[in-house]
Specification:
mainly alpha, globular, 159 residues, homodimer, DNA-binding, 7 helices
Chain lengths: 159, 159
DNA sequence: CACAATTAAGTTGTGCACAATTAAGTGGCT
DNA sequence: AGCCACTTAATTGTGCACAACTTAATTGTG
């Protein structure tokens, strides 16, 4: 009974390979970042938060979440860990007491210098050139957009 | 100081877009699976384990881990949850007492019928056709291979 | 045979992702 | 003013990923 007995069985096989490939690639990326970021004492999601802050300056948690597609359930503890490491400060906004603004500390800003070499090392780890990466990125963004829309409509139709 | 003042700053921007796209796509896929698999009472990694078992029959945890690139730290509790749901049984191998074989229960085997429609729904959620998916899958597998090799050599050079 | 090295699972601890809920602040509207 | 809807964070609980370690069984070698 392990052989593919019907067209549906082939679909199950194929399916495994589509989503599984993405899943595996994502974890492989994570593994490389884990090794490279260890020197900086960062995890990959923490590094993403710092990338946004380095690029755009201080932001409220809400804005961080929009850019990274993460909610407060993920960001709150993550930012607190960054604060514990002395890389950021959290400050309630004076204008809107609901909002918490995340500021880079001097130490957090300084870490950017040491992070500058990370992209090159990642790039070389992929073995891809700029054009290939750009192509893949475009494909993945297209996929994400389609999947997000589908999840919405699936969730809607499940109500 | 938010503007890109050097070539290195551009690298940081670019970098965010490569790995971040993959990260986002992986989570988007997970979101769609979450919605679709809710009816079956499965998470996406649990579904992956069942896919392997449906296709290849009973396997030791070790073999499952090789195919899914997961270690016992992830698989042990996951398989126990599947056992708790009545979908699999775990049995110590008689020949090698170290090995635990994961068997589908009748209920677990029967769930396959209801899972047959999942791939089509996922496929349609991506908005991609078979050729595009195959192309993307090939690219991702290539990426995973390169990244795994790089993580090895990075880890080696860090010693 | 004895003992070291290896192997398979499981356990522990940390961190991320996300659903669901809570708490507190804001703004509109009558 | 009083009330209601909405917004922003934080919290709680579940599950996955992975490193580090433990336990028990097996294999290899002298």
């Amino acid at each position: 009974m392990t052989a593919t007995a019907s067209p549906d069985a082939d679909w199950l096989r194929l399916d495994r390979q589509i989503c599984f490939s993405l899943h595996a690639a994502s974890r492989a990326f994570n593994g490389v970042y884990r090794v490279i970021l260890k020197d900086l004492g960062l995890t990959y999601p923490q590094y993403l938060v710092l990338l946004v802050l380095w690029e755009q300056g201080d932001l409220p948690v809400k804005k961080l979440g929009e850019q990274l597609r993460l909610d407060s359930g993920t960001l709150s503890p993550l930012v607190k860990r960054l604060e514990g490491a002395g890389l950021v400060r959290r400050e309630r906004s004076a204008e809107d007491e609901r909002s918490v603004r995340v500021h880079l500390t001097e130490e957090g800003a300084a870490l950017r210098e040491r992070a500058l070499e990370v992209p090159r090392r990642i790039m070389s780890a992929t073995g891809f050139d700029l054009a290939e990466i750009g192509e893949l990125r475009a494909r993945l963004d297209q996929l994400t957009t389609a999947l997000d829309a589908a999840a919405q409509s699936e969730a809607r139709s499940a109500r």
